[in-house]
Amino acid sequence: MEELQKNCAVVKKTAGKLAVTSSNCGCMEQELSVSIDPCGIVCDRKVRQAHFFMHQDHAHEFYELYYLVSGGCRVFLNHTIYHLTAGGIVLIEPGALHHTTYEMTQESERIALCFGRDYMEQFENACGSGWREKFAQNPYLHVEGRLKDLIEEMFQALILERKDGDAFSDLLRRQKILEILVFLAREVQENRQIRIEEVPEKAVQIGARYICEHFRESLTLEDVAGQVFLSPSYFSRQFKKLTGFGYKEYLNHVRLKEAGRLLRETGDSISEVARLCGFSDGNYFGDLFHKTIGISPREYRRQHRTQQKNSK
């Protein structure tokens, strides 16, 4: 097990499809409508009706390039809310918790391009290191005019080469991923402005960021709401409405993600890991970890160390 399963979907091949499993929704599987291919690429185009939203926590261990063809939506990603219109692009890094809600008044069309970490490694080998961090710091872009047409043409080429391809298609599709990353890197260097809305969304973003910075403390809803001068009940409602996650649910996600890192990278005791991640009760931490990950913290650490030894 490489990463936490809580809010980090498990990717597996099921009947030739790329299945994404979210552990806190009863292990229900949501299959993308296209088959996974030898390139490790999935490019999926869908029309979303008004009011559509993701019902469960969503994260995965591959990159996702989300592109809005038409309509409008709101994406919550790493304690920030992004408002997308046609031409909006969000690059979602592996393990990042995200949630999408679409406009209430119109249908929208989106393209989701999923690809493995190895493509980013190839890009960095060719263009220099540090791009993973740059993309993580600048995940949102908006393209217009000829660049918008070019991006959509590249997405469509990925879909068609998969559908009607020949012996050369795999190579072309691999190259398209790198080509898309080049265009995004150029836009990042131009420091495109991020569209972030004002209150109450600004308050929710500040609150989410505060959680990420103070999750090790004995943090309460009242503490976080007080940071943005809102009542706990109002902040809680707005947080759920705008991010798709309850306050406690999001706090636990942040804490468990850090717990997984400590279990993998340190020799700290289980009780010390719990304390460092903000859990005052070690038994509660163990129960929550087992409930969401499916195994105990001790077994999680053992499996990870076994995988490390086998990979050497």
Automatic annotation (TrEMBL):
Key word Transcription present: yes
Pfam families hit by this protein: AraC_binding, HTH_18
InterPro entries the record matches: AraC-bd (IPR003313), Homeodomain-like_sf (IPR009057), HTH-like (IPR037923), HTH_AraC (IPR018060), RmlC-like_jellyroll (IPR014710), Tscrpt_reg_AraC-type_HTH (IPR020449)
Keyword Transferase recorded: no
Domain annotation HTH araC/xylS-type: ranges: 205-303
GO molecular function: DNA-binding transcription factor activity; sequence-specific DNA binding
Alphabetized UniProt keyword annotations: DNA-binding, Transcription, Transcription regulation
Domain of life: Bacteria
Name under which the protein is recorded: AraC family transcriptional regulator
Signal peptide: none
Organism: Brotaphodocola catenula
